Please model this.
Amino acid sequence: MACSPWLRRLAPGAAGAAVVVCFPHAGGGAGAFRPLAKALAGATEGARPEVLAVRYPGRHDRAAEERIEDLRALAAGAHQALAPLAGRPLTLLGHSMGALVAYEVTRLLEQQGHDPVRLVVSSAWAPSRVRGGTVHLRDDDGLVEEVRRTQGTDPRLLEYPELLAMALPVLRGDYKAVETYRHRPGPPLRTPVTALVGDADPLVAVEDAAAWRAHTAGDFRMRIFPGGGHFALRAHWPELAEQLAEGARPAASHRQ
Model:
């Protein structure tokens, strides 16, 4: 299932199989999770989960559409696209900005009684720890400086003015979505949460990631990657795939 413009299928799954839904970072696209889809194909025995990636409007093959610069509006769009999958076991995985979008989608799913199997958040502040910021108000040079610092964009892209001119408005809009987001108090999730973070992340301190514990009444797990920066996850796709595959194997018996 990937007929919605909001979703791209990175790996097919068996009928009724579990689904892993990936939410990209600021400025990122669905392709960022292709290594995970490949790793899952090799890690999973039996029925493989379907792997989908969320495509935010205003970039890549949705470049002609108006960008959404409000995080809850992004979550609402993604949630609507996932509605046909509500009867299947869903694992939501978000990196950085994508973790906050995935969290808000999880809240919406739980309101309708469709609790995900697990929410996996990578290199992300807990919602209650988001402190705003002014990166989206910087000039282009200041925005490029931040991109270099986080190492989230291929540095070769920054050397081509034409590509940079297309990328910067998207990045600015995504930073605005994160920096203007404010957590709305409410009951903790019922959905179990796994938090992943690098111990040398220049943006997210270990204690900021650990604070996700307060946002779930379910099982909480945390993994700290040694020496990892903001994109430490890129060096650990096989390990994550094993964990996700393990959670997907009992999918046939899972009930929403």
Remarks:
- DSSP finds seven helices and seven strands in the chain.
- The longest strand covers residues 90-95.
- The beta strands are 7-11, 19-23, 50-54, 90-95, 118-122, 193-198, 220-225.
- The first helix runs from residue 34 to 43.
